[in-house]
Structures are given as C-alpha cells and as structure tokens.
C-alpha cells in the first residue's frame, strides 16, 4: 500500500514497491525491466536506482518485508494463552488474513526465490523457518498435551501452511464467501486435520469477524 | 520425459517440451526466449517453429498435456469400488505420485496461466474443473453417506488439492522421508480433515508402496 504520510522520497519508494509487486506478479521477475517499472511509477529509471541499486536489491527488499511483516503480524496476534488449540486458531486466522490482503506479494515471495543470490536466499529461508517453527511448536505442544493427534509435526506444518496460503489462488472478495466464512471453514478443517475436538476449539476462540471486515 | 521410441521428429518434439519445462520453471515463461530454448535443445530456432508456431502454442501444449495426463492417470487408478474412503485414498495417492514425478511441469502449470490467451485459459481451466469435480463428487458422496463430515465441499476440495500439490515445494527424493511415507502421512491428514474414521480407511486401502517405489 502507498503510504499517505512521509517525505516525497518515502512516498516514491512505497510507490516503487507497490508497482514492482504488481509487475512481477504479472510478468515474472526475470521478464520485468527497471525501465518498465520506472514508467509505471512515472519516474526516470535513474531515480529507481537511488532506492534500489540493483533489481535484485528490490526483489530481496520485497521478500524480506513480506516475511518480516508476517512475523510481526503473528507477534501482534499471538494469544497470551498456552492452550495449543487457541494458539493454532490464532495462527490460522492471522495467516489467512495476512495473505488474502497481500495476494500479489505472496505470489512474488513464493515464486521468485529462484532469482535471489544464495546469501539472500538463505536470509529469506531463515525468516520462513522462524515462522514455520512457531507452528511446529504449537503442534508439538498440542500433541504432547494429548489435545492433538499428529503423525509428523514437520509434514503437518507444511500441509497446513500450503493449504492456507492456497486460499489466495481462488479467493476473491465479494464472491460466494466472505473472508470470515472462509476462515471459519479453514479453522474447522485445520482442527480436524490435527485431530482436535472441534467443540473444545470453538469455545476457545470465536472467529474475529469484525476485525476481518475492517482489514479489507 | 524424452521418448525412447518414435521418429526423429517425435524425439525432437519431446526434447523441446522437456527443455521448455525446465527453462520456464527456472526463468519464467515471459523471460524465456525461443532462441534460448533452441540453444538448449541443440537445434536452430526455425526448427522449433515447425513444432510450435508460437511461444504460446508451446506453453498451451505443456499445460494441456499436464492436465490431460493428470486426468488420464486418475482414470487408470480410480477404484471400481463405490466406497468414498477408498476413492478418496486413491485420489490422494494418484495426485501426490503424479505431481512429485512432474515437479517442474506442475510449477509451470500453476504459475504461467497469466500468459495464456483468454480462449486457451478457458480450455485449461475446464480441464482443471473436470479434475476437481471428481474430488468434489467423492467428498459429496462421503458426506451424504454419513462417512465424511464436511462443512463446504468446494472449499474442502481446494484445501486438499493445495495441501497435496504443496508437497512438490519441499519434497526431494532421498531425503528424510520416502514418497510412500509422505503419502501415508498425507492420507491420514486427509482422512482426518474430512472427518473420516482412520480405522475404516486403513483397512479399505493400504498405500501402494511397491508402485510408488517403481514410479521414480
């Protein structure tokens, strides 16, 4: 999103990022040129290089900010409770809300890892691992407490993340289902997948319909 | 896979397809040139146009054959049984085996839809719908028979397909888990997700370890 406050420089940088996400999502990173990007933003190509000295600096910034944003969003929404079901529900809600609001950026983050240098790829993968580790800890705690029934914590974490991120492929606001309805259905699928009692969970944490409605 | 029988023309066409899948998976469709592709195959660019008059003809052919191959593989493996649990298990096994064996083609098929003409996009989406419809029918039959517990058949089908296809993102042969082990875990996650009794299912259909081992 373009910021509405800040210096002209900050506004331009935000506009560059927004335009880059949309161009890369449409054309792919390798096919996008800095010249096309400058034209879309309405600045000279030279101006872009002030913010992003190389095209890969731009890609890396987009990906790093996406993952840092996801980790921050989770930090803000993680419940104080130790209850694995409540923590899992919060993780699912946050994951779906974050990605639906950032469809193109998610697409870019998932598809363009191939274009990062090895050192930068490692940095992005570390952020991903940190995020996935949060889910694995919830699943492990639930299994140890006998609340969840899980065969393989690592595989279950990957399956859940891919199932949830997949929402961006088909979900469009204003169609058959609202974000709140989609989230409710994904919550019950998740709870069944990990072998949790649905009843326990729905008492533990109702879907935050009001916040979802505001977020988009 | 390159064919080992057939005329030189067929061999070249197969080599072009194989090289295209790998180049598009690495660079993206928009960034790949027919000249690069010709160089990779070791033919003149003009020779490519004999098989694929336009670059988009090539992309469309790759995507159509991927989806037709998936539908054919399912036709070959679908069980004669009416039992929804046995049919669901067969669908999961076929889906995972097919996609793990075609990691790059799956990547191309999922990522490059944006580059098809509207008419061709419609044709590919029809094939996808036909494939997803098979899964929806299984889920609906299971729910109606009281064997599955499903909130939303459409959402559950999408969730399962994305969860299963996601395997290609992290699975590499020869690492911690075999295809058979991954499939077994995905089968129990699927059966729990749809609210089926795991016991009923595991009696109904053991994982075909032998076939999986041969397939790769």
Index terms:
homodimer; 216 residues; mainly alpha; Arc Repressor Mutant, subunit A; Tetracycline Repressor, domain 2; 2 domains; 12 helices; 73% helix; elongated
Describe this structure in words.
The structure is a homodimer of 216-residue chains. With 216 residues, the first copy, chain A, is an all-alpha fold. Chain A folds into two domains: 1-53, Homeodomain-like (Arc Repressor Mutant, subunit A, Orthogonal Bundle), CATH 1.10.10; 59-215, Tetracycline Repressor, domain 2. Helix content of chain A is 73%, strand content 0%. The first copy, chain A, contains twelve helices and no strands. In chain A, helix 4 packs parallel to helix 7 (118-144) and helix 5 (84-100) crosses helix 10 (179-193). The longest helix of chain A is centred in the middle third of the chain and has 27 residues, at 118-144. Chain A starts with 7 loop residues before the first helix and ends with a helix. Mean pLDDT of chain A is 89; it is low at 203-216. Chain A binds chain B through residues 26-31, 111, 114, 149, 151-152, 155-156, 158-163, 165-167, 169-170, 177, 182, 184-186, 188-189, 192-195, and chain B through 26-31, 111, 114, 149, 151-152, 155-156, 158-163, 165-167, 169-170, 177, 182, 184-186, 188-189, 192-195. Chains A, B: Keywords: DNA-binding. Chains A, B: Residues 33-52 bind DNA. Chains A, B: Pfam families: TetR_C_24, TetR_N. Chains A, B: Residues 10-70 form the HTH tetR-type domain.
């Amino acid at each position: 999103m373009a910021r509405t406050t800040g210096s002209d420089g900050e506004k331009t940088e935000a506009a560059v990022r927004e335009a880059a996400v949309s161009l890369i999502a449409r054309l792919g990173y390798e096919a996008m040129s800095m010249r096309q990007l400058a034209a879309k933003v309405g600045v000279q190509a030279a101006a872009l290089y002030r913010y992003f000295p190389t095209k890969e600096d731009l890609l890396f910034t987009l990906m790093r900010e996406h993952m840092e944003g996801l980790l921050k969003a989770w930090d803000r929404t993680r419940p104080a409770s130790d209850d694995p079901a409540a923590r899992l529900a919060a993780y699912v809600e946050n994951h779906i809300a974050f990605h639906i609001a950032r469809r193109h950026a998610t697409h870019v983050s998932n598809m363009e890892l191939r274009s990062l240098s090895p050192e930068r790829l490692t940095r992005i993968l570390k952020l991903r691992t940190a995020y996935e580790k949060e889910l694995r800890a919830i699943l492990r705690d639930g299994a140890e407490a006998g609340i969840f029934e899980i065969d393989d914590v690592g595989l279950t974490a990957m399956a859940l993340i891919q199932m949830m991120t997949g929402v961006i492929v088909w979900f469009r606001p204003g169609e058959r289902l609202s974000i709140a309805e989609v989230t409710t259905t994904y919550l019950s699928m998740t709870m069944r997948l990990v072998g949790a009692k649905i009843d326990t969970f729905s008492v533990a944490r109702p879907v935050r319909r009001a916040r979802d409605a505001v977020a988009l």
